[in-house]
Design a protein that fits this description.
Blueprint lengths: L1 H6 L2 E5 L2 E9 L4 H19 L3 H17 L1 H12 L3 H21 L5 E4 L7 E8 L2 E5 L7 H12 L3 E5 L5 H11 L8 E3 L4 H9 L5 E5 L2 H13 L3 E5 L4 E5 L5 H13 L9 E7 L3 H13 L19 H16 L3 E4 L14 E4 L6 H4 L6 E7 L2 H9 L3 E2 L1 E5 L3 H10 L4 E4 L15 E2 L2 E2 L8 H5 E8 L4
Parallel strand pairs: 5-6, 5-8, 6-7, 8-9, 10-11, 10-16, 11-14, 13-14, 16-17
Antiparallel strand pairs: 1-2, 3-4, 4-20, 9-19, 12-13, 15-18
Helix pairs in contact: 2-8, 3-5, 4-5, 4-7, 5-6, 10-11
This protein binds 2-aminohexanedioic acid.
Length: 467
């Protein structure tokens, strides 16, 4: 009954309180995607022809609406995806800042000029909008990730067709309510839907570029489909991120930072720490410090200010994570903390720390997307780098040390898109390039000035005198 599943209402329930229904939404299908692309296409040319300042003004005003509704939006993020309320507030503030950043970036230089062959002509390469871009966004940052795709897309003159995750439809509607009234026309079209709507969007000949954030398997399929029909693709996929703790690190401070990076928001970030790789000399001390830090994290209702962990997005996700921990232990891992469901309504899992010796073990290789983290041991920095790099993902690595010379060396040898020293793997500076190596990312980086690369294409123009 796949077809019936695809047309059943999208139902959004509070992951912390199964009795609290956030809303029901009609899912769109191929026909709705088709209509949305046509509407976006009709609006695209006029929008691209506007002065950049007008597009900048729209985004600034949309940021103002986000700020004016900040408390309500944070509550909605907390309620719909179970994000701890402190983080939810941070996400709303980040969303407004992203809109403002790209509003200003709309006014940056839009190309280069070059010396011409004859010395008289004007030779330039100018960035032009791609036209209609398709955006497929996940539920875990239900407004910030859409904002960091929509804002540059709009700043540089594109029309957008946006399919948000079926786990965060209400957040998507709320963000659209902030944007749409400030735009000069119907240049953002949203289609609520599931995988079938996403596939229709990626395959639509009227969509010139697709930006996707989600799993490796879906991202690879998106990229393949896009390449087949000559559309650009940017896929931000998973991580299996390591935090390396070298022998000279401050263990208490490192443990506190890593516990939050691994388990905060129930580990549901592609930037979460999934492996702690600790120098053999400090293994015992680090184990104790990390167990204490993990056990000290408050797992509770995300509405509580003290909450750091919160529930998983669904009962299925919680059960899958508990099963992964169980398999990890059966395969030889030693459970140091957590791993079981909490005796409370809501999809809670006690944060699980598992000591793993075998680098090829599932918990050392696969992304669980849950509060589950492997503790591993490496003798010396070189072995730690080898272990950290020995996965198919390549999003972010953290290094904890006071040794600057070592850091300068390691930063070049870690094959991840981000390297963060004495910092959590999670967290992103919105004005810097964001994206991963290897299976973690395909296509140009997102965010900051780098976003321009994907949301525009270059037109090389030679203008010569008529005689
Ligand atoms: C963060 O760590 O603050 O889906 C952002 C994700 C990433 C974004 C992480 N694309 O988790």
């Amino acid at each position: 009954m796949a077809a019936a599943g695809a047309t059943a209402d999208i139902v959004s329930d509070n992951p912390a309180d199964p009795g609290d229904r956030v809303g029901s939404f009609r899912p769109g299908g191929g026909i709705d995607v088709d209509r949305a692309v046509s509407a976006a296409r009709d609006a695209a040319a006029g929008y691209a022809a506007l002065p950049a300042q007008a597009r900048a003004d729209s985004l600034h005003r949309a940021a103002g609406r986000v700020e004016a509704r900040a408390a309500e939006l944070a509550e909605l993020v907390r309620r719909e995806v179970g994000k701890p309320v402190l983080e939810a507030r941070g996400e709303v503030a980040r969303t407004a800042a992203i809109l403002r950043y790209h509003a200003q970036a709309a006014l940056d230089p839009d190309g280069d000029t070059f010396p011409s062959g004859d010395g008289r002509s004007l030779l330039m390469a100018r960035r032009r909008p791609r036209g209609v871009v398709g955006l497929i966004t996940p539920w875990n940052f239900p407004i910030a990730i859409p904002a960091w795709k929509l804002a540059p897309a709009l700043a540089y003159g594109n029309a957008c067709v946006w399919k948000p995750s079926p786990f965060s439809p209400a957040c998507a509607e709320a963000l659209l309510e902030c944007l749409a009234p400030e735009l000069p026309g119907p240049v953002v079209q949203m289609v609520q839907g599931r995988a079938d709507a996403g596939a229709a969007l990626v395959g639509h000949p009227g969509v010139h570029a697709i930006s996707f954030t989600g799993s490796v398997a879906t991202g690879n399929a998106v990229a393949r489909m896009a390449v087949e029909r000559g559309a650009a693709a940017q896929c931000e996929m998973g991580g299996q991120n390591a935090s390396i703790v070298l022998a000279d690190a401050d263990l208490e401070a490192a443990a506190a930072t890593i516990a939050t990076a691994a388990m905060g928001y129930a580990g549901q970030k592609c930037t979460a720490t999934s492996r702690v790789i600790c120098d053999g000399a400090t293994a015992a001390g680090m184990r104790d410090a990390l167990v204490a830090a993990v056990e000290g994290l408050r797992v509770e209702d995300p509405a509580e200010e003290a909450c750091r962990v919160g529930p998983l997005i669904s009962a299925g996700a919680r059960d899958a994570a508990a099963a992964a921990v169980k398999r990890g232990v059966e395969a030889g891992g030693r459970l140091l903390a957590g791993g079981g469901p909490l005796d409370a309504p809501g999809n809670y899992l006690a944060p699980a720390l598992v000591e793993v010796d075998d680098p090829s073990a599932e918990l050392a290789q696969e992304e669980v997307f849950a509060p589950v983290c492997a503790l591993m041991r490496a003798d010396g920095a070189d072995a730690a780098v080898e272990l950290a790099n020995g996965v198919r993902h390549g999003l972010v690595t953290a290094v904890f040390t006071r040794d600057l010379d070592r850091v300068l060396d390691l930063a070049n040898r870690l094959d991840t898109g981000l390297v963060r020293v004495n910092q959590p793997t999670s967290g992103v500076d919105l004005h810097t390039p964001f994206g991963g190596e290897k299976a973690s990312g395909l296509g140009p980086r997102e965010q900051g000035k780098a976003a321009r690369e994907f949301y525009t294409s270059l037109r090389t123009v030679l203008i010569s005198p008529s005689c």
